[in-house]
Amino acid sequence: MLTALAGRTAIITGGSKGIGRGLAKRFGEAGLNVLVVARSLTEAERVAAEIGPSASGFAADVRDAAACQAFAAAALERYGRIDVLCANAGIFPAARLDVMTGDDFDTVMDTNLKGTFLSVAAVLPAMKARRWGRIVVTSSITGPITGYPGWAHYGASKAGQLGFVRTAAIELAPWGITMNAVMPGNIRTEGLDGLGPDYFAKMEASIPMARLGGAEDIANAALFFASEEAAYITGQSLVIDGGQVLPESLAALEDLGGPA
Ligand code: NAP
After folding, report:
1. What is the Å distance from ligand 1's center to 38 Cα?
2. Ligand 1 in reach of 40 Cβ (< 6 A)
3. Active-site residue 199, yes or no?
4. In the chain, where do the E strands start and end?
5. What residue segments make up the domains of the chain, in order of their start?
6. pLDDT of 79
7. Which of 35, 69, 94, 131 could form a disulfide with 150 if both were Cys (CB 3.0 to 4.6 A apart)?
8. Which CATH number applies to 9-236?
């Protein structure tokens, strides 16, 4: 049983869909006030309404430093404190190298990597003032561990997040602030749904657990990183992928058997 976090405040960027929506709902269930951040206020408020009166929506683009400062200010104004940040907003448009433009590269980096930095920077004054904070970054297996054609820029941004986490965790340790990363495998989300049924079938065939994950799988790990009990864990990353990165080859998945 983890110490209750009820009454504290979590900010979830990219909280209106997919993994972020799962994070927002899980932290809401755990009794935290939740600020759901996305570019679309309507979508953010829709998820906040699903959670209840302890949640609210806020429109901000994490590529914009002033917008990140604004979501931090809104959390303080509405809830009086910031305890947890889930820096989760991210995009994964595909472009192979022969067609990838500098603008494509910049857009992915600005959202996924710089957006993580700007979100973290915005909440630090409030966390430092209380000498307590939990930051959970949503990275990926793609980049730090694996690759996939079309996602060179995406993989670079996700690997970059882990580099950011390691140094930031050192700088923040004296303040009682931890920073860790979750590394999802393939998780059913609105963003992933666009990749189509063929993608899902092939992915399921390459995962030892033979299914994609759910947002709740990521949210449960994030809630642990946010707990009091995780106070001595910082700068780390946790793969949550149903075993997807484990097989050495397709042969490792043949004739697995299992319960009838
Ligand atoms: P998703 O379903 O497409 O949702 C993305 C969320 O991010 C939405 O709430 C979106 O809302 C928000 N967002 C996008 N750009 C933003 C910006 N510039 N500023 C603020 N919010 C922004 O995506 P997802 O699949 O849940 O992915 C979420 C995170 O998990 C990403 O960091 C992704 O890299 C990571 N991840 C996902 C998977 C997977 O299998 N799904 C695997 C590994 C890692 P608006 O459009 O309204 O802004």
Report:
1. 9
2. yes
3. no
4. 9-13, 33-38, 55-59, 84-87, 133-138, 177-184, 237-240
5. 9-236
6. 98
7. 94
8. 3.40.50.720
